[in-house]
Amino acid sequence: MKKKVLIMTQNFYPVIGSAGNRMKNIYQLLNEFDIEADVLTTEPAYPNKNLYNDKTFWDDEALNKKTKKIIRVPIKNKKFSNHIVSRLYFYIEIMWRFLIKLWQIRKENYDYIMVSTPPIFIVFSALIGKFFLKSKLILEVRDLWPDSLVGVKTFDNSFILKIFRILEKRMYRLADHIVINSKGFESHIRSKLKKNTPIVYLPNGPRAHEVVRSKKYEGKFRVVYTGNLGLAQDIDHLKLIASALQAEGIRFDVIGYGIKTEEFMRYIDEHQLDQVYMHQPTTRKKSLALIENSNIAVAFLNDADVFSTVLPGKIIDYMTCRTPIVAGIKGTAAQIITNNEAGFVFEQQDIQGMIEKIVELKNNPEKLKRIGENCTRTVQDVFLWENNIKELVQIINE
């Protein structure tokens, strides 16, 4: 008899970013591996709901078909805000609507609820729902919360943070299985557990058809950045990189979204950076095409300790496109880049070192090619979804 799984997530197709793509892949591949997977999610709203009025984002016909397998709950908030009260209301609304829907589908006989965090509030609805659905719980952790909240310096109320940490510990302990997308999370989570709860590493990655296996370096030399422009991404250092690349006459393409996007665009205008090209948020397919058409990709993360445990999805996307990485980053992501010779890692403040390395690589196409080959080999050996999903399939079929 097929196992039946309900995936609960705020981020799902066609939502842009690594979280939405991750949950889409898990949903599709579980079904391909003969597990009956359904999804409970919201209407697409990140970074804002109006973005998805553009049919360009709805580019997967198989997922566009009306089906009872994908349950979307409506939300009143039309824009994702960084204001703490507005965001709290947003999360509580999702939690409440998910709880109502879980009650309505309580007779569906799901063997597992797989819930993705952050945000943690969706987990609360899953923890309650698992009892009246009589399901086991797989907790999928994409970020360490509330440490990440502290890391972006948006919240510092010690009393409420203490409550959040108690809730975090409770969340881990009530899970039957835990899935992580970065090995850097494991020791932190283990320190919160009383029992030996199984923890499975399931990294972000490409599907096999997305991997770029050959690439020609022709035309104007280009550097690219893609993804969130938020509090975790160290926008100030990205500004400095943009100015430094301008001074070197190197084209810099940015596909950015998030709360710091307007600030970055103002900086470009004020400093007349005509070598910096801003692109509107777009589909994964078009984003990967832009990365593939670039010679080097850059990445930054806030230097808070919690972000040293993170493996950003963009790092794997860069390697998927055979594009060498120059990053101001540390910890888990830095180890992946360095150990696999997929690029070069610097201290965040070492903008000059990063620029010098970019110029060096610009003048050494053979070295660029070798690093690109390392990127492809690493992705094929370590990060393909078709291979890694088997870990999750094994858990569910036990």
TrEMBL record:
Source organism, top-level taxon: Bacteria
Give the transmembrane ranges. Answer: 112-133
Gene3D superfamilies attached to this UniProt entry: Glycogen Phosphorylase B (3.40.50.2000)
Q: Domain Glycosyltransferase subfamily 4-like N-terminal spans what residues?
A: 20-205
| Record key words, sorted | Membrane, Transferase, Transmembrane, Transmembrane helix
Species of origin? Oceanobacillus chungangensis
InterPro entries registered for this protein in UniProt: Glyco_trans_1, Glyco_trans_4-like_N, Glycosyltransferase_grp1
Q: Which GO terms describe its molecular function?
A: hexosyltransferase activity
Which residues does the UniProt record annotate as the domain Glycosyl transferase family? 213-375
Identify this protein by name.
Glycosyltransferase WbuB
Q: Name one Pfam family in it.
A: Glycos_transf_1
